[in-house]
Specification:
Layout: E1 31-37, E2 42-47, E3 62-68, H1 73-83, H2 87-94, E4 101-104, E5 109-119, E6 124-134, E7 138-143, H3 151-159, H4 169-204, H5 208-240, H6 248-313, H7 329-350
Helix pairs in contact: 4-5, 4-6, 5-6, 6-7
Length: 354
Amino acid sequence: MAKLIKKRSKKSGLPPGSLIHIGERKVETPKISIIDYDETKFHEEKTQAIDECFLFKDKPTVTWTNIDGLHRTEMLEKLGDCYGFHPLVLEDILNTDQRPKMEDYGDYVYIVLRSLEYNHRKDEIESDQISIILGPNFVFSFQEKEGDTFDPLRERIRTGKGRIKKMGADYLAYTLMDSIVDNYFIILEKQGEKIELLEEQLITSPTPETLQTIHDLKREMIFLRKAVWPLREVVGSLERGESSLIQASTRIYLRDLYDHIIQVIDNVETFRDMIAGILDIYLSSVSNRLNSVMKVLTIIATIFMPLTFLAGIYGMNFKYMPELEWRWGYPLIWFIMLGTGIFMLVYFKKKKWL
């Protein structure tokens, strides 16, 4: 899983708005895909030159520009100069450890959220910061790496399925966020399966590796909570806000998205409680096993204490000990020792200590 906190040391001392990429470089060359459409038209192209995006600025159609790779700061600077994006917005796009948030700049709305995917090969959750800029007739989305999160959405636009081509740029921004939130449910399903397997393992045969698995799950739940909780505020602000960029018809869908986020948050909190309970059960199980071992060892030691006392007495080398000359002294001491042990076992059994 990705680090919870990324280093910002290379921005130390720089003025606000300085364009420095913070995070891992996940692609070699940034890739730009442009989809321009309305109810009757559709145009799609891929390029590596940011200047190609400027041709669609004043078109009445809806233009969706997706950029994979954020390390080319000069490319974002050109984009900001053309569309009039605030330098702080460009700075936040390059800082890939942003908390999900929404900022309304009047002419456009800036949204940050996290896309989560489960890597089956590594058996871990991978995170990608998604930045979205919503304008009157355009949407820009910025990703750290090239992925397939938005591929189903692109196919819907190509085929004209659904209402997306009949709606405006605000509905497109909603569908981008909805695609990301839908992936959260996939992550939660996988986490739920891991928790169920862990519970079965905990009951049958807990091992030291079980504790490591519990720790990893707990860390992932903290990461999920950090990604999802602020998103509730983001979508709620969009749904209740007064931005002219969000149409009344889209606010209904944002309300539904808000409900989905609440479901995700409830599941995350439930899983966190379950993991905390599993950890308590594991610690109790280990403690009970230790107590059982200590109980057996204590009983053995208690039984051998009087036997050791008797053996110590008759192991002394005094010359005048009356029992040493007895014909039946040796069998008698064995009888006493065995009798003492049996008596103590029966006594412990009666007291339900065994």
